[in-house]
Amino acid sequence: MAAGRISTGVPGLDIMLNGGLIPGRVYLVKGSPGSGKTTLAMHFAMAGVANGENVMFITLEEPAENIREDFGKMGFDVYHENFMLIDATPTTEHYVLVEDFSESFAKNLNKLTESIKEQFRTRYYSRVVVDPITMLKLASKEELEYRKAFLGFVKTMMRLRTTVIITSELERTDIEEYLVSGIIEMKLFEHNGELKRAIKITKLRGSGFDNVIRPYDITERGMVVHPDKTAP
Ligand SMILES: Nc1ncnc2c1ncn2[C@@H]1O[C@H](COP(=O)(O)OP(=O)(O)O)[C@@H](O)[C@H]1O
Ligand SMILES: [Mg+2]
After folding, report:
1. How far is the CA of 3 from the centre of ligand 2 (A)?
2. Is residue 48, in this structure, part of any structural domain at all?
3. Which residue has the CA at smallest separation from atom 4 of ligand 1?
C-alpha cells in the first residue's frame, strides 16, 4: 500500500487512485442499480477487516440476511466479529436506525449521523459504509435542510477520523459531490450487444488519479478492475 493510503480492497481500483484512498475522508460511489456499488463497498469493508480494523456496514436497501448470503457465497468473511453489519432497511423491525422513512431526509440523515456517533462511543471503526444513501434521499423535499444535514454528516465522520464510503443511485447527487473528498462512478452499458462495465474517478481531493475510464468485471469472487485496459 502506498504511504498514507488505504486499500479499497480492489487492487486495480487502488492503482487508479494512485495508491488507494486517503484515510479519514468521505467518498461517494455512484452507479445505477446492478452496477456493483454494494460489491465495491463490501471489498472496502473486508479490506479493513483483513487488516484487523473494526468496520461498520449500514445497509439501507438489501436486508442484512441477503447481504450475508450473497457476499458470503463470494467468499467474504461476513460473520467476522470485526464486521458490524447494521440492518436499517425499511422493513427491519429488530434494529431500526431510521424509524420512519416518511420523515424528511434531513431528519433521517441527522438520525443516521447521530446513530453512527453513538456506535463510536463503545468502539472505534476505521471504516464506515452507508449503502445506499439514496434510500434516505428519495423522500426528501427540503433541499436546504438536506444540505445542512449532509454537511453535518461529513463533518462528524471527519471528526471521528474514519474513512467512509457512501453509495448513491441518483444521477444527480449535487451537494454530496461538492462535499465528499472523492467520487467513483460505475457504469453499465451495451457494446456490440453485450453488457459491459466501466469505472471512472471524477474527483479525488489531495491527489492525482487515473483519468481514463477502465473496464471492470464482477465475478463469483467479487469485483476486478483492469487498470491497464481501456473501456470500449
Ligand atoms: N457470481 C457472480 N458472477 C457474476 N456477476 C455477479 C455475481 N454475483 C453478482 N453479480 C453481479 O453483480 C451485480 C450486483 O452488484 P451490486 O454490488 O449488488 O450492485 P449495486 O449495489 O450497484 O446495485 C449484479 O448485476 C450481478 O449481475
Ligand atoms: Mg446495492
Report:
1. 30
2. yes
3. 219
Tell me: the pLDDT tens digits for 15-43? Answer: 999 999 999 999 999 999 899 999 999 99
Task: Report if residue 103 sits inside a domain.
Answer: yes
Ligand 2 centroid distance, CA of 17 (Å): 22
Among all chains, which residue has been given the C-alpha cell 456499488?
37
The one-letter code for the residue type at 38 is T
CATH of the domain at 97: 3.40.50.300
114 alpha carbon to ligand 2 midpoint, in Å?
23
Tally the domains of the chain: 1
pLDDT per position as a tens digit, 50-106: 999 999 999 988 889 999 999 999 999 999 999 999 988 865 444 445 555 556 667
Check pocket membership of 212 for ligand 1, CB cut-off 6 A. Answer: no
Rg of the Cα atoms in the chain: 17
Task: Choose the residue to mutate in 10, 13, 30, 39 for probing ligand 1, maximizing ligand atoms within 8 Å of C-beta.
Answer: 39
Q: Residue 32 and residue 37: Cα distance in Å, rounded?
A: 8
Confidence of residue 146 (pLDDT cuts 50, 70, 90): confident
Rounded CA separation 78/104 (Å): 32
Q: Which residue segment(s) compose the domain that 57 sits in?
A: 24-193
Q: Model confidence over 94-140: pLDDT tens digits? A: 444 555 555 666 778 888 899 999 999 999 999 999 998 876 665 45
Instruction: Please state, in angstroms and rounded to a whole number, the distance separating the CA atoms of residues 223 and 44.
Output: 11
